[in-house]
UniProtKB/TrEMBL annotation:
This is beta-glucosidase. It holds the Pfam family Fn3-like. Its EC number is 3.2.1.21. Belongs to the glycosyl hydrolase 3 family. The keyword Hydrolase applies. Keywords: Hydrolase. GO terms for molecular function: beta-glucosidase activity. It comes from the Eukaryota. It catalyses: Hydrolysis of terminal, non-reducing beta-D-glucosyl residues with release of beta-D-glucose.
Length: 123
């Protein structure tokens, strides 16, 4: 049985790496294994791009990262999933790779059709 329905998205933190212009942030998801045996859960992160930005229609949701966590029966485990600017970037009208400024909706779940957790991240 999937572990994710008992999960709670607890936050995102950001930092800038020593490489110029490389921003990275982590999305942390807590997983509660309410089953009787150890399990492994793959958490997928999807984003919805800011509305009204760029020459293209924003994707409805696109997979940007994923993480895997092993959790013992009855335990609560955390999974920090790094997301870099390359994960959010898209090509503009002049075919330059860039990140749109604005509010991104971040969704977490076991699949594209099962994303019970969400939050907004402003870039």
């Amino acid at each position: 049985a999937p572990l994710l329905p008992a999960a709670a998205l607890i936050g995102a933190t950001g930092y800038r790496s020593p490489l110029v212009g490389t921003a990275v942030w982590n999305v942390t998801v807590d997983i509660a294994n309410e089953g009787g045996i150890e399990g492994v859960e793959v958490i997928q992160l999807y984003v919805q791009d800011p509305a009204g930005q760029g020459p293209f229609v924003p994707y409805w949701r696109r997979l940007v990262a994923f993480g895997r966590v092993r959790c013992a029966a009855g335990e609560v485990c955390s999974c920090a999933i790094p997301v870099s600017w390359e994960h959010l970037a898209q090509f503009d009208g002049e075919m330059r790779l860039r990140v749109l400024s604005g509010s991104y909706r971040v969704f977490a779940g076991g699949s594209a059709e099962d994303t019970p957790l969400e939050m907004n991240v402003v870039v």
